[in-house]
Structures are given as C-alpha cells and as structure tokens.
Write a structure and sequence with these properties.
Rossmann fold, 22 helices, single chain, 8-stranded parallel β-barrel, 5-stranded parallel beta sheet, TIM Barrel, alpha/beta, 24 strands
Length: 569
Amino acid sequence: MPSLFDPIEIRGVRIRNRIVMPPMTTRQAAPDGSVTKELIGYYMARAEGGTGLITVEMAAPDPAGRHRAGELGITEERFVSGLSSLTTQLHHAGAAVAIQIGHAGGNTRQDVTGYPPVAPSATPHVVQEQDTRTIVPEALTREGIRSVVTAFATAAERAKRAGFDVVELHGAHGYLIAQFLSPLDNHRTDQYGGSLANRARFALEVVQACRQRVGDFPLGFRLSADEFAPGGVTLGEAKEACRWLVEAGADVLHVSGGCYRSVPSAAIIAPPMNYPEGLFLPLAAAIKKVVKVPVIAVGRLHDPALAARAVEEGHADMVALGRQLIADPEWARKVEEKRPEEIRPCIACNTCIDGMREGSKIRCLVNPVAGRETVYQLRPASRPRRIVVVGAGPAWMEAARMLGLRGHQVVLFEQEAQVGGRLRLAAKAPVFQYVETNEPTVLKFVDFLGGELRWIGVEVRLGERVTASQVAAAKPDVVVLAPGARYCVPFNLIFPRLLGTQRASGRLSVISTRPFMRRLFYDRLRTPDIALERGLRALGVEVRRIGDCHRPGKTPEAMTEAAEVAFEP
C-alpha cells in the first residue's frame, strides 16, 4: 500500500505527497475579490511547509453565489491575473494547486451579494454572515439552472488559464449543489427533484459542462456522504451518486459530511474537539470501495499516525488537514522528518471558523501568526536583549518561545507549580470558546508550549511569588507581563474550586454560555492587580504588557499581543 509521502497523480498531474489542504474561507482577499499579498503569504506558508495539494478557498462562479464578504473572486476575467500570480508562487514552493468553485445557493443573503439568493426550492435558510438572519431564497427556474451550470463551466475554464492544477466543485455542506442533492432542501417536482437520479441531475450537469469546457484537465468533487440529518442524504445515496459523478467526469472525490441542518449541530461540518478523530474516515472508505478514482478523506485527521494509517490501510488515497494546517503550516515537513513532537496541535476549538463567520479574517487561537505571515516573519533580533516574562499562561509562553527563537535571553517566572495559567482552569469548563470542551485536547497545547520552551533554552522558574525587586535582580532589559487580577473575597477562594468540580455538578455551565454571567465572573467580581507593574516602573524597568485582567477568555487577542511584543525590533 502507498504511504502518506508517496506521490500520486490525478489525471496526469503529479502531487508530491498525499497531504491536502482543503478549502477554508480566509477573508484575505480584497473587498472586490482580488488576490492580495496577505492571501499569497498565507498559502505560501502551507506550501513551503510541505503540503502536497493546496486547495484555495471557495470562489463563486456567479455573483449571486458569493457566501461571504471578502470572498476570493473568479466571476470576471479581471481576476485571472491575480490568481495566476498566486498559482505561480505556490508552484515555485513545490505544491500542486486547486481552487474550489462553489455557489452558496440559499446559504447567502442579498446584503452580501447584491442579488436575491436562489436555491432549488424556496426553503428557509438560517444564514450567519457577521449577524444571523433567516432568509427564503427564490426557487431557480430552468433557465436559471442553465445559467448557473454555464457559470460553473466558465469559472473552471478561468481557473485552468490561471494555472490551477485541479478544480474542485463544491457539492458538500449544504451549498447549492448539495441543496439540489438533499431532500431537505430540494422539494422540486420537475426533473431536478424527487428521486436521487433527479436530485443528482444538477450536479452531473455541472460536472459534464466543466469537463466539456476544460477538456483533459483534473476535476474534483467534494460532497457530504452523510448529512447527519433526518431525511437528508445518506451514505447509500452518496455511494450511488459518486458512481454517476465519476462517469460524468470527476477525477477525484473529496468525502466530507454534515450540512447546516445536521443534528444535533451544524458544527459537525468541522468536528470540534469533543467529536471523535477521523469522524468521516469510514465514509471515505465506503466511497473508495465503489469508485476507481482517488478519494480524499477529511475530518480531524490531525494525528500523524491516524493520517498515515488512513492511506496505508487503504481507507483513502489522500488526507485533508484543514484547521491543523492553520495551526501549523509545517505539519507535513515535521511528520516527514519524524519530528511529530514539534507539531503545534490544533485543538479543534473552531476559533478560526467562528471568528470568520463573525466577520474576522482568518485567525487561530494557538497560532498568532496565522493570517499574518507577511507581518510576522521569524528573523534574528537586531539587538538581542535579556527579557523576563512574568506569567506562564499560553500567550506569555508563546511570547517567551518567539523571543527565544529570535535570539533573546529569556527567563520566565510563574508563581504556580506548573505552566498553563488559567487555560488549565478554562479546560475544565463545559464550553471552551463556543464548543463543548475536551480537557486533554486543550492541554495538548500547554504541553506543546512547555516542550518548545525546553528545547529553545528558556529558563523557567516555577513556584516563585514574583516581586519587583526579584525581577529587577535578574537585570532584565525588558519585562513582559500580564496586568494580573484577583477575585473579590470570598470568590478568590470559592470560584476556582467550584469550576474545578463543575463537570460533576453541572452547576456552572451558565458561566460559559450566558453573557451576563460571564461578565459577572470575568469582570465585575475581578479587580486588577497592578502592584508588580507599578513597582517595576518605579525601578525604571521597561515593561511590555500582554492581555487585560478583564479579558481572561480572550486568548486570541492575548496571543496576538504576544506576537506583537515578540516581533518588535
């Protein structure tokens, strides 16, 4: 059987290994959809990290199909030049490059696209794009269907001329093609509705039109092989549809799962930390048994051993790593060089996805450089200095790590007996960010940072109550610290104990889920402790602050501030 690092060919296109970056919206494109240097920098980091096939985020074939502001554009000829620049640079880094072409259908809004949303049927959709609204799309006419099919084919031809190696058609996760496939969204009574053959007609026409337009060029198709929703697409139907898709011209199938109507939650599309690893792998294995084209598996395949087994045991021909490649763009290189302990773990907190849906550009809770690759580049410091970091929460550990890598002499003080700070306490809460918590998964990040500090050579002093005179005695050029906070009595004694036992009682789940309770416990009952900072400044010590005592749940912002401090000249 092949291994994870054996090359593979898709319709004559050679890919250096079996590792795929799947399409994920970044909002890094210009407002009009043009390619930016930030977008190129983001994908270049993953290509240079060894990923075999980079799939650029979804681009709509038709203006009415855009699903996000800041979405990459391919609807007009003027986009080809920028896309060509993107593919050229990614090719120079050794990666093959795909682009996903997808139409949002009923999962967009007129305030996003400027056009009334369209779908197979006038079925209500809940659409989150910064805010959340319920919309009812217009049902496509026969003429409208033909127009969208032509738009897909035209976009595929533009992608070919822009230098992409593969075009992936988005037929998963409840977007337009998936809406035609699903009985949950397709209530038509004409030749595009009813039986599976009719519901699959639109997808097949899109594949056939693209094949006719691009000729001997690789076409992929991504689908949800199980929508995990009563009355939705099942694996049995997906297997039959995949046979037809291959006959119509699909060269590779990317097998995912879920949709916006999934039960109990649409979060299954990108399985959060409390879902099993490799959740969709059985779906890919089942599809692989009925087709003779390469099959890509996806869905929490972050563990190198699991990803390797998926290929070696024949469950899939390639594996897609989405959030893990946001967390660590060098995953492929580190695995190939047998350095798995150096992989920055994705904890499947879905900060990247939730932030994007709320309007932010791509960001990662565990990787402050993600989306800022052109801003933060790890270069030796122009003037190495002695730096003391006070506190061993994740942001302060990350600051110490990056400062050490840049050549500074770093000492880290922590009054507790172990590193991790309040993240260890947060990992016990029922909800982390917006997903159900899995404590061991969260703490993998702490273990990673601790290992990084050891091999970099950061001096870590634990269990020491830090005073201004003690820090000054270390003769630092700069001190990096948290402002600190404490609970009012008696909460400083009661609250940590309650939170530590809440899983058994379930009494404190409201703290993680109700905004007013979060404000109470994370703001009203806390007071800043700035004695150390005041003392250091009185001694003439230069201080850099990371974080805010009233933002303990805002790790992404603190991590960003850590990067800003670490990358100062």
